[in-house]
Amino acid sequence: MSRHDPQPQPPGPPAPPDPGHLLARTGVRWTIIGVLVSTLLTVVGLVVQARQGHDDTARGGSSTGASGTNGGPGPSEVTQPATAPATSPVVSPPDDGSGLTAAERALRDSLNSDQWRRESCERETAPGATAALKCTVTTSDAGAGTVTTKADIALYPSRSKLQEVYRSYAANLPEGNCDQTMNVRGTWHENGSSAPAGDVACYTADTTRYVIFCTYYDRPALFQVTGADPAALTSWWHTLDPVFTD
Question: Residue 219 in contact with residue 226, Cβ under 8 Å?
Answer without folding.
Answer: no
